[in-house]
TrEMBL record:
InterPro entries: 2Fe-2S_ferredoxin-like_sf, 2Fe-2S_ferredoxin-type, Adrenodoxin-like, Adrenodoxin_Fe-S_BS, Beta-grasp_dom_sf
UniProt KW Transit peptide keyword: no
A single GO BP: P450-containing electron transport chain
SUPFAM superfamilies (alphabetical): 2Fe-2S ferredoxin-like
Protein name, per record: 2Fe-2S ferredoxin
Domain 2Fe-2S ferredoxin-type, chain residue ranges per copy: 2-106
Cofactor: [2Fe-2S] cluster
Gene Ontology molecular functions: 2 iron, 2 sulfur cluster binding; electron transfer activity; metal ion binding
One Pfam match: Fer2
Record key words, sorted: 2Fe-2S, Iron, Iron-sulfur, Metal-binding
Family the entry assigns: Belongs to the adrenodoxin/putidaredoxin family.
Amino acid sequence: MISLTFLTADGTRIDTEARPGVSLMEAARNASVPGILAECGGACSCSTCHVYVEPGFAGLLPPASEGELDLLDFVCEPDPERSRLSCQITLTEALSGLTVTVPERQG
């Protein structure tokens, strides 16, 4: 299992685990993380699963696709170094310990 930490906008820390191969968005939904709306269900067509990836993990992720980059243009308060769509992050053992912050609002 892969250990994950979600930091919510109100400062709540949610520690959870997920199986390799699932998306970070699915792990967030399974853990009932508030603020991950995931309106498109993971189809990379809405940007309501936006998260900020902790800097130490950003280099372990594959680069964002053109489609993901296009959708990141619509998020509230994007961070060019840390913003990702959680539906586009497939969990691997290398990501165990990953910490992400959920933005105050999705959009």
